[in-house]
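In practice, a research group might receive sequence data for several interacting partners and want a quick structural hypothesis before committing to experiments. The following worked case mirrors that situation: the sequences arrive first, and a predicted assembly follows.
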Amino acid sequence: MTSILLHQIWHQGKEQDILIQGNQFASIKESEALENYAGYSPLKVVECKGKAILPAFYNGHTHAAMNLLRGYADDMPLSLWLNEHIWPIEAKMTSEDMYHGVKLAILEMIKTGTVFFNDMYFSWDECMSAVEEMGLRAVVADSFIDHGSESYKDKYIAKCKAQQSKNTDMLRFAVAPHAIYTVGEDMLKRCAEVARESDTFLHIHLAETEQEVKDCLSQHGMTPTEYLHSLGLLGPKTILAHSVWLSQHDMDLLKESASVLVHNPCSNMKLASGIFPSKNLIDNELKVILGTDGVSSNNNLDMREEMKFAALMAKVRYGAEALPADKVLQWATVDAARAFGLNAGEIAEGKLADAIIVDLSNDRLIPNHHLVSNWVYAADSSAIESVLCNGRFLMENHVVPHEDEIKENAMRVAHDLVKRVK
Amino acid sequence: MTSILLHQIWHQGKEQDILIQGNQFASIKESEALENYAGYSPLKVVECKGKAILPAFYNGHTHAAMNLLRGYADDMPLSLWLNEHIWPIEAKMTSEDMYHGVKLAILEMIKTGTVFFNDMYFSWDECMSAVEEMGLRAVVADSFIDHGSESYKDKYIAKCKAQQSKNTDMLRFAVAPHAIYTVGEDMLKRCAEVARESDTFLHIHLAETEQEVKDCLSQHGMTPTEYLHSLGLLGPKTILAHSVWLSQHDMDLLKESASVLVHNPCSNMKLASGIFPSKNLIDNELKVILGTDGVSSNNNLDMREEMKFAALMAKVRYGAEALPADKVLQWATVDAARAFGLNAGEIAEGKLADAIIVDLSNDRLIPNHHLVSNWVYAADSSAIESVLCNGRFLMENHVVPHEDEIKENAMRVAHDLVKRVK
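A structural hypothesis for the assembly, expressed as tokens:
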């Protein structure tokens, strides 16, 4: 087993040596001369003077294949955007399209330091192939939308059960009823049951817009969160995307059930869904993580940028001290890794060896008064030199294997797709 | 005179040839074979297949030397931030510090596609040297803060008058009373007079916080905008940074006087100053441009990121169709160039040859359904390959001359500065 030594890397305010063995950080200590590592053979030595290590990102909510739709429709209200643009083009997407869209998404994630994503789309199998080829971690799910067909429902539940046997350390499968307004009560319950039986994640959009809350109150006499609770969908393996519109009672239910809320600031702002109540959620000690949503409502998968949006949005709503840099970095890293059961998200001995290596001589990281502040508020992807996942380099010195091929394929299928819609 | 040919560059949806002669775009037309350009000699040919040209950025409000304070103090209320952190360290800054801080700022601007900045700080001479060395455009001003000394006031006014003789096409000088709460009535009037006499710009912070409006109402019985109007400070060469808190009457005065408002979304959000009323300003047909403010309240000078913040902030406040990508790009480019009297900010024949060249094979610009949408919402600086200003390359193929030296000097003086405060 080859070990990797990150020699003289900046970590916690000083130069250290970080030894990776297998898929873990084996030791982190004061930097030593290379000859002291003679016992580790084979050893890949990476000279890291002038570089710093930071935790990698875990993206809590994505629709990866939508990378094909980047910039296809913007600057319009949600209903027009969905009905006239997104749904018609999605109806024309083939499996091949989705596969290449996911590959482009993963390429973008790797280049921006993300090693895990929690995906919901119509591309379960394509996502699985792309993830395995590119070496990062994921929880993937087919999004279930209720069209009334009983056989379609049965098929979905059967597939959810069957997929569990294919779970690996890197790739797991979730159950994903799309939302309370696209899935009926019976199927929401069946999804909750199959997720519980399989001890797997349940991924759903919740309380994204004020309209969703109003409609739910008028239809069920409950808020969306209360409605999910009444059907048994809340719990520590339930991942609730958006969660913008919450009452105090909703927050109590979410805390009791230890459910996970995914904050998607760019998407919520761009679609004018509302302002996530970040301070209330912190005060109520809820489990919050960060996600980008799909690129057609963002329009990228850059978790660094997402951190800045989350923090600045919190500040303009609650005051300049709200959601400081350290806290939002936790949401994007260790808190998210924990939510998905990964012993990762921190640079510490015994943790899974996922990390970003940044170049401290990047102009946006100068001066280095406070690395985390620079990372959250000032940097961009140009500072990211290498990305490690599970003890392997996904990107080394800016190189991701097969990048050109991935981009050419995505470009080709995206442009053919648009032609088929017109 | 060497001409530059940007051969086969993507512009307005197709491959074109752009010929630059002197400091202007001389011709823009369908791409031709290179031999057709034999008459232009000497000719520097830049092969641009797979690249696109975009207008460069004009940053409406900066404090460039503050780049030394990046990440020095964050996540705290404005008064604590200013009184306990920023002002004490500013008091220790030397001219040498400021010179190296401005150089770092200009390096960051060039790498993010900015070719002009409108600066206000205590570093007039240092800014002048740095701008001339690095080849971009600027309007620079010393920030005047009233300490009550008459001789200090006289000296400031005399310096403002004297500097006008040093104006060049690239570098001009402005008068910059800091704000209505740091400069007395008599000096505000004198600043307006000297700006009028010299036909130069007047740069001031206005209505940044709600508190400023409340204090002004109680002290003068007028809003800050009305107060400036009463003292004769409004006009087409008056540049008003922030302008967050405005009444309808304020907007009427600003329109009548053709004053220029600078929107600083990141700073306003990070310091919790408030939400800029972008839709009202557009509806009232006011002149709005974009700026980053200094890095200690941002914490970078990246106008691409600033555009995304401006657009998404407008959308979450006013609806998803507010401030579309094309409009915010205008604020950051052609509208800003016009506000500063530059025949620039557009890629068109006869305009000053300022531009950004981006790599269309950057993963964040794929697919290319809508280049402006990708640029505003999806890209980052990693897509920027070259930057042109006044017909010269400030950055060519990612290389800015003397980059390492600029960064090393800034790092050194910033760390020494911090030691002197502790």
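Before designing any experiment, note the following. Residues 1-49 of chain A form one domain. Chain A has a mean pLDDT of 96.
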